[in-house]
Write a structure and sequence with these properties.
Elements: E1 3-7, H1 14-29, E2 35-40, E3 45-48, E4 64-66, E5 73-76, E6 80-88, H2 96-113, E7 119-120, E8 127-131, E9 134-146, E10 149-157, H3 181-184, H4 192-204
Parallel strand pairs: 1-2, 3-4
Antiparallel strand pairs: 2-6, 3-5, 6-10, 7-8, 8-9, 9-10
Helix pairs in contact: 2-4
Length: 206
């Protein structure tokens, strides 16, 4: 597979990242570039997907960027890993459901590497953990498919500050909170970018 791996060391503005993804998608559809996996962090920002509801905003003072990805409202900040991609589903039987399962398995296997058990939920998309007898969300998924090419991506809370999630109802789910890996298990996650990429590439081959 000719998939370019891109890793940004400094946080990237959300609008800048999406503009890059949209351009990359166009170039890919024109046959001018390869598929892409891009690991990065965002400068703090609230983003709302296509099924966003205004009632999910608790603090009306916050600025929200509306986007064309699937899903509702979420928050990105330093310490949260973002995995964006441009992946051709025509090479993968045009199976969107299987591709989402590939993403879910990638995150679950990544957490498993750090001895953290997690699971997916068909009713509430994303990856969840049982922490202190409460089910909490640790990763969010929001994709868009155009001409059978999937883009946007998923986010994984590693060691980010969770306070600003209190200003929204993350992903529109009222009865469950979010967490991060450091809160679940305080250990070294410095190599997690490589673990995510390696798992994702392996799962894309299945």
């Amino acid at each position: 597979m000719n998939i370019e791996i891109k890793k940004s060391t400094n946080p990237v503005e959300y609008a800048e990242a999406i503009a890059f993804l949209e351009k990359r998608l166009t170039l890919y559809n024109e046959g001018k570039t390869n598929e892409l996996i891009w690991i990065l962090e965002h400068i703090p920002v609230y983003t709302a997907g296509t099924s966003f509801n205004e009632s999910d905003v608790l603090d009306k003072k916050i600025k929200i960027i509306k986007t064309n990805r699937g899903g509702k409202i979420t928050y990105h900040n330093k310490g949260q890993r973002i995995c964006y991609f441009v992946i051709d589903l025509t090479k993968r039987n045009k199976d969107i459901r299987k591709f989402i399962t590939t993403i879910e398995n990638t995150i679950i296997q990544t957490l498993g590497k750090y001895k953290i058990k997690s699971f997916s939920d068909r009713k509430n998309i994303g990856i969840w953990v049982n922490h202190n007898k409460k089910v909490k969300k640790v990763a969010a998924i929001g994709i868009k498919v155009k001409k059978w090419v999937a883009y946007h991506g998923f986010s994984l809370n590693v060691n980010n500050n969770l306070d600003n999630y209190e200003k929204i109802i993350p992903c529109g789910i009222k009865d469950k909170k979010v967490t991060n890996l450091k809160e679940i298990k305080d250990q070294n996650y410095n190599n997690i970018n490589n673990v995510i990429v390696n798992n994702f590439i392996r799962n894309l081959k299945i």
